[in-house]
Amino acid sequence: MSELRILLVEDDVGVARMLERGLQQAGYVVDWSRTLHDAVAQTGRLAHDLVVLDRMLPDGDGAALCAALRKFGHPARVCMLTARDALEDKLRGFDAGADDYLVKPFEFDELLARLHALGRRGPAERPELRRDEASRSLVLGARQVRLTKREWALAQPLLDRRGETVRREDLLAAAWGGEDAVSANTVDVYVGYLRRKLAELDGDVRIETLRGEGFRLSG
To answer: What is the pTM for the complete model shown?
Structure first.
């Protein structure tokens, strides 16, 4: 098995140590968090393939973390591991984006089998950046930003040629056409506006500056 990285979010030290030891022996790399706050920091710092997530944590419900991971396109598969066994609890877990739900007390071998199955699925699908022409907006997952008429025109060649270099002259022509007295510096200013709009989507889509060549939409 290739080495997969697991984020274990569990506040019970005894359970966490048992899980950490067993998962490491099974070949996983394990990072352990006891709180939602620490788990959020871990997901921002490290790339996890799987998350084993308790619901009842000292600073909140683990379902909130799962929902946030899905909202922002985090690719990890999530297995909730919790004592909450009511049907409504399970439904809320799946509604939050969990891939699996295992109730405590549990058999470690069953958890291992479920994680192995989740690992074979590969990462969860990341939301795609898309255009909504009717509202002149960019949409990523549950987030949406509206663009001005000029920003929208500037964005089109970057979106159409995503991953490729687009020259300043091409952006100038797309957004300003044949207008006089528009400098290349104006393009830089509006690219800055567009970058700030993309940042509001909280994804990994960004505009790179390629010195002496132009700009590239990546992520």
So the answer is: 0.59
